TrEMBL record:
InterPro entries: Phytyl_CoA_dOase-like (IPR008775). One of its GO terms (molecular function) is 2-oxoglutarate-dependent dioxygenase activity. It comes from Neolewinella litorea. This is Phytanoyl-CoA dioxygenase family protein. Keywords: Dioxygenase, Oxidoreductase.
């Protein structure tokens, strides 16, 4: 029996999230202007509720299934690392592509709370899906995610009009390795990519003295389960070890504004047909998720 590939469905499959028109979504969930202004200034926006308790529990149940290496849909992952660090005392589970495998993780792409905020933070643009991720740190021996900029891994697409949304499935605090940001670092130049589960301080050698001093102002993003943080693709961020008695599980949705194009002639994600350089990122694997209602003015993101 062939395991069904849910990427063939460019619409929700369950009733986990309400199905609303663009107008209803915007009216119900749009951010106040001061939140958008904060994102423009600092490069992130945190403590945004995206999920209720039942939705969190549904996603955690699917996560337990997906983390099994013998899951029958395993071949549909773009990447699957039961421990990306390779160190059993610093475990980082990291995967991409689970939206193709289980229905709740498929449908969370169409969560209206997420979509309207993504559109606003992209300058009231139409939103396309890029790819998803899971980041899980077990209790007592969870590993790090080294300081990095997301776009350093995404230069095969452009221009830079991307957005990351990180959502907690467990309460995330400093003691269990919550996300940390360097406010304002989205205005820095693009840095070389780092080894994701490697040396926490590997990025420092690329920085000047002023940029290094900015780490003194880093912000720990503590979130209850079901709450999210959004950040700019150039914002420097990372997370430290989990030595607590609690797991720290999260999923990530990466999107870009409609009109983003391929910068590479090779495979962009494992198993996904190549998109020729200069061609738009669209189609089955990069579905259009949301367009703002008519009358909403497109805004400059700078």
């Amino acid at each position: 029996m062939t395991y069904p590939d849910l990427s063939r469905h460019s619409e929700p499959l369950t009733d986990l999230f309400p199905r609303l028109s663009a107008e209803e979504t915007w009216d119900r969930y749009a951010l106040p202007v001061e939140d958008v202004a904060f994102f423009r200034k600092e490069g992130y926006l945190s403590n945004v509720k995206l999920l209720d308790e039942d939705q969190v529990e549904r996603l955690k149940a699917e996560l337990d299934e997906l983390m099994r290496p013998d899951h029958p849909g395993h071949h549909l992952f773009y990447e699957f690392h039961s421990n990306e660090s390779g160190d059993p005392d610093a475990v980082l589970f990291h995967s991409l592509g689970h939206w193709r495998i289980t229905p709740a993780f498929h449908d969370v792409l169409w969560n209206p709370r997420f979509l309207v905020i993504a559109s606003q933070l992209l300058g009231n643009r139409s939103v396309r899906f890029w790819h998803d991720q899971l980041f899980c740190k077990p209790a007592r021996h969870g590993g790090v995610v080294a300081w990095h900029q997301d776009y350093s891994y995404w230069t095969r697409t452009g221009p830079i009009q991307h957005l990351t949304c990180w959502t907690a499935l467990d309460d995330a605090h400093q003691d269990n390795g919550c996300l940390q940001y360097i406010p304002g670092s989205h205005r820095w130049n693009l840095l070389d990519k780092t080894t994701l589960a490697g040396d926490m301080d590997g990025l420092y050698e690329q920085l000047d003295a002023e940029q290094r001093r900015a780490f003194d102002r880093r912000v720990a993003v503590e979130l209850p389960a079901g709450y999210a943080t959004f950040h700019h693709p150039l914002l420097v961020h990372g997370s430290y070890h989990n030595r607590s008695e609690r797991a720290r599980r999260a999923f990530v949705l990466n999107v870009f504004a409609d009109g983003t194009r391929s910068n590479a002639g090779e495979e962009l994600l494992k198993g996904v047909p190549a998109v020729a350089p200069g061609e738009p990122m669209e189609g089955r694997f990069f579905p259009l998720l949301f367009s703002p209602p008519q009358g909403v003015r497109r805004e400059d993101q700078s």
